[in-house]
Specification:
249 residues; disordered N terminus; 41% helix; 14% strand; Rossmann fold; globular; binds adenosine-5'-diphosphate; disordered C terminus; alpha/beta; CobQ/CobB/MinD/ParA_Nub-bd_dom; single chain; binds magnesium ion; 7 strands
Length: 249
């Protein structure tokens, strides 16, 4: 794996999982990877979904960076490696990345829904090896019902999981109802992520929403979400050298 080595502590593992397809798992995963990388952390993705959308995003990002370089554009964008593995091999694949020195953050993207048979033991294996689990959910009653049932079954009593309302219209009756319904089954993240075009436009170039070069497009809520999560998982400080030296000064 082509990852630079510079730290000896255990990486923080953030697992993205949800009982419903299209809930925003990969969107969350790629934006968390981009935010962590922008803060100077060495972040690596693990894509366990056979659609490999997170890996595709990382490949497109490589192309964007290469194109910028060949056009002579200045950029501080960094490549973000994403490993892929079959879901059934997810625990071993996660361990392989954990064993690589110098990684600060691993974001694991998973396929949707309940897994049965041999795959049933994978999610418990992943959750027990994760520092935090984010469960994206849309605001419709169908989505909240599905996520609620899944949460109760898969993550019951977990004190390291939070549901994130994703792609929502904030001031709407269904958003309030979703918040209430989800609060009955688990911890709900106080930051709600709206349905914004910038999630789609940045995806197209392998970027995160905080990396959009159109300042008015950036989603300030995702900045808050990342700061909130960073505190939850104890990723204190910002590893970007110029910010660190400003702190010392
Ligand atoms: N906050 C958002 N704003 C706009 N579009 C979003 C947002 N979150 C997710 N989407 C879109 O919803 C679709 C499904 O999201 P995705 O992350 O692929 O879901 P999953 O990985 O859970 O199947 C994608 O087209 C994605 O661009
Ligand atoms: Mg996905």
């Amino acid at each position: 794996m082509n990852v630079k080595m510079h730290s000896k502590s255990d990486p923080v593992v953030i697992l993205i999982s949800s009982g419903k397809g299209g809930s925003g798992k990969t969107t969350l995963a790629r934006n968390l990877l981009a935010s962590a990388t922008a803060d100077g952390f060495q972040a690596v993705g693990l894509d366990l979904d056979e659609q490999m959308s997170l890996r595709a995003w990382s490949d497109i990002r490589d192309t964007t960076i290469a194109d910028m370089k060949s056009d002579g554009e200045e950029s501080n964008l960094k490549e973000i490696p994403v490993e892929v593995a079959n879901y059934i091999d997810g625990v071993a694949a996660l361990q392989d990345i954990k064993d690589v020195e110098g990684i600060d953050v691993i974001v694991v993207d998973t396929p949707s829904g309940f897994q049965t048979g041999d795959a049933a033991s994978v999610l418990p294996g992943l959750t027990s090896r994760s520092n935090f689990i984010l469960v994206p959910c849309r605001q419709s009653a169908t989505d909240t019902r599905a996520v609620k049932a899944w949460y109760a079954d898969a993550l019951h009593e977990s004190d390291k999981a939070s549901i994130v309302l994703m792609g929502v219209r904030r001031q709407s009756r269904s958003c309030d109802m979703a918040n209430n319904m989800l609060a009955e089954c688990g911890d709900v993240c106080p930051i709600i992520i709206r349905d914004l075009e910038v999630y789609r436009s940045t995806d197209q170039y392998g970027l995160g929403v905080t990396e959009s070069n159109l300042a008015r497009e950036k989603d300030p809520d995702f900045v808050s979400l990342w700061l909130w999560l960073r505190r939850k998982v104890g990723l204190n400080g910002n590893k970007t050298p110029d910010i660190q030296s400003k702190k010392v000064a």
